[in-house]
Amino acid sequence: MNITEVLRLENITKIYKQETHQVFALRDVCCSLNKGEMVAIMGTSGSGKSTLLNMVSALDEPTSGDLYLLGKKTKEIFKEPHASDYRKANIGFIFQSFQLLKNLNVEDNIALPLILNDVSQVEIRERIGWVMKQLGIDKWRKHRPTELSGGQQQRVAVARAIITNPPILLADEPTGSLDFNTTKDIMNLLVQLKEANNQSILLVTHDPYVATFANRVLFFHDGQIINEYHNTHQEQDLDIILSKFKEITRGGH
Ligand SMILES: Nc1ncnc2c1ncn2[C@@H]1O[C@H](COP(=O)(O)OP(=O)(O)OP(=O)(O)O)[C@@H](O)[C@H]1O
Ligand SMILES: [Mg+2]
Predict the structure, then answer these.
(1) Distance in angstroms (rounded) separating the CA atoms of residues 249 and 43
(2) How many angstroms is it from 41 CA to the middle of ligand 1?
(3) Which residues lie below 8 Å from residue 176, measured CB to CB, with a gap of 6+?
(4) What is the mean pLDDT of the segment spanning 44-67?
(5) Residue nearest atom 2 in ligand 1 by C-alpha distance
(6) Hey, how many other C-beta atoms are within 10 angstroms of the C-beta on 17?
(7) Beta carbons of 159 and 110 less than 8 angstroms apart
(8) What is the pLDDT of residues 127-165, one digit of tens each?
(9) Is the CB of 50 under 6 A from ligand 1?
(10) Which residue ranges make up each domain of the chain?
(11) Which atom of ligand 1 is nearest to 26's Cα?
(12) How far, in Å, is the centroid of ligand 2 from the Cα of 117?
């Protein structure tokens, strides 16, 4: 694996001001993501996982701390229009709820990021062909999302996320609404894609099985990374991840 650092977060703190008090959603978080690496984030509800993805995708600005993209400090990315340029060029999103547009067929859903990027019709056709082949979804080209199963819809959503070939994929509970076999399918697909395209994936999950597909697992509690595990891709991973996750949920750290 090429170990070039794609992303580095240095002392990222995020404080939300709620009506009566402040919430420290992230406290001095330091972590990195290498090229071709999948990192899973696990943690209790409210521990700051989605907030972290929001910082990485420049949907929201940290209260303090620095973000580095390919070694370059990128303070300005948090301000529009830099934020949307940065997102378009570097980030693909996969959500738990797929977020496909009901009135568009599969092909048009997938093409959307390209249309928004003003890509030519010829290139759109080429890229759709490429992505359909990678994901084996050609047969649903003209279907509406409502005509597809959850797993099929998530495949389409993965296709939409990778159509611009972004170096970084962010996924918040991508298998949260899928059954075991479909989860396995989608995770194998993500591993395959990351290996074929050298993409880096940051994935939030509450499912220890999903976390076994990653190279590393970061455990979040109360806005901090309190533990980390490097998967060995052997049977023991699942038990170790499960026990580390239980430690957090029990508050026994
Ligand atoms: N826009 C916001 N305004 C105010 N507080 C927020 C906002 N977004 C998140 N928070 C607070 O920040 C903390 C972290 O929230 P976050 O959504 O990152 O948690 P999470 O780990 O993703 O949880 P879950 O597993 O439930 O999705 C929580 O206490 C939450 O209430
Ligand atoms: Mg969340």
Answers:
(1) 8
(2) 14
(3) 96, 205, 206, 207
(4) 94
(5) 16
(6) 9
(7) yes
(8) 999 888 888 899 999 999 999 999 999 999 999 999 988
(9) yes
(10) 5-97+167-250
(11) 14
(12) 28
Average pLDDT of the residues of the chain:
92
Our answer on whether the CB atom of 90 is closer than 6 Å to any ligand 1 atom is no
Average confidence (pLDDT) over 5-17: 96
Residues contacting 201, CB < 8 A, separation 6+: 37, 38, 39, 168, 169, 170, 171, 190, 194, 214
What the block records as the tokens of 239 is 């038990």
Coil, strand or helix: which one is 40?
strand
Show the tokens assigned to 135. Answer: 């994901």
Q: What is the pLDDT of residues 111-133, one digit of tens each?
A: 998 988 888 999 999 999 988 88
Homologous superfamily of 5-97+167-250 in CATH? P-loop containing nucleotide triphosphate hydrolases (3.40.50.300)
Ligand 2 geometric centre to CA of 174 (Å):
11
What single letter denotes the amino acid at residue 22? Answer: Q
Query: Is 234 close to ligand 1, i.e. is its CB under 6 Å away?
Result: no
| Closest Cα to atom 16 of ligand 1 | 48
25 lines ligand 1 (CB under 6 A): yes
What's residue 253's pLDDT?
54
Quote the CA–CA distance of 174 and 205 in Å, as a whole number: 8
Closest CA to 149 of 114, 171, 113, 181: 181
73 or 2: which leads in pLDDT = 73
